[in-house]
């Protein structure tokens, strides 16, 4: 099953959703998750257009954090810590390019690692993830080769790849995140509960005659048998 996970690094509800999608990835071995960029506020001019000023963003967005923290299964948001910080709320541009650079370097697994690390830096550690020095410090703590990542981050083609994602979601009428595009035809909107996501994916799989898990399905209990354990032949 093909799932495109549409999100923004600065999106509060994408934080709990990413945690749930990790569980989906663990539970179903025949699911392919790819990542698509969405910019809630690409640059300061976008914030000014939406909120009147860059300074007005944080007080408004911290209200969103309150709701997202209730949505989050782990309640990880450090809201008061962020309120005390003196930097203005981060824009989407550089964090999205950073995650895309990781994806171009190491594939979807690397993209996801950096995406999650940047979100944790913002929502839990209250770092200004629009600051490239902060981004670089986050990358150094991941499994990526920093110098190779930095080359990708500074390559104009990486920003263009992000822009292609933004064009894609705009063309397909996606105007909120998180969102899941399933099999190019189904849309799951918002940070739904884990059980709802799983139930919906299972319904789609049945409708499309797809398997969420491949391999043998166990029927009945285990009978008596002989097996190899730690190099030894053991029988029931």
TrEMBL record:
The molecular function terms in GO held by this entry are: oxidoreductase activity
Q: What keywords were assigned to this record?
A: Disulfide bond, Oxidoreductase, Redox-active center, Signal
Q: Which residues form the DSBA-like thioredoxin domain?
A: 3-201
User: Which Gene3D superfamilies would you find in this protein's record?
Assistant: Glutaredoxin (3.40.30.10)
Keyword Lipid biosynthesis on entry: no
For whether the record's keyword set contains Oxidoreductase, the answer is yes
Signal sequence bounds: none
Q: What is this protein called?
A: DsbA family protein
